[in-house]
Amino acid sequence: MISFRCSHRAQKIAYANEGAEAAKKESEVNQRKRKKEDEENWELRRDERVSSWRDFAGTSSTTAAAASSAGPKKPKKKKLAVLG
Description:
Blueprint: H1 2-44, H2 46-57, H3 61-70
């Protein structure tokens, strides 16, 4: 009778471990699918993000390229004479 209990208990533990492993694998597969979909959606919405940023910044693609190459002119600092 004791051997039956041990084998039955061992079998229950084995089934529980198999279920946990299956759930873990399924979770990993779902996580990979979700990550792939998120990356695809991110790329599909790229133009929308860029255009909304340009609207916010007040520049367009042509003026942004021209502004970045010319750059704003900064006034030069005057040199101060050191006393002493």
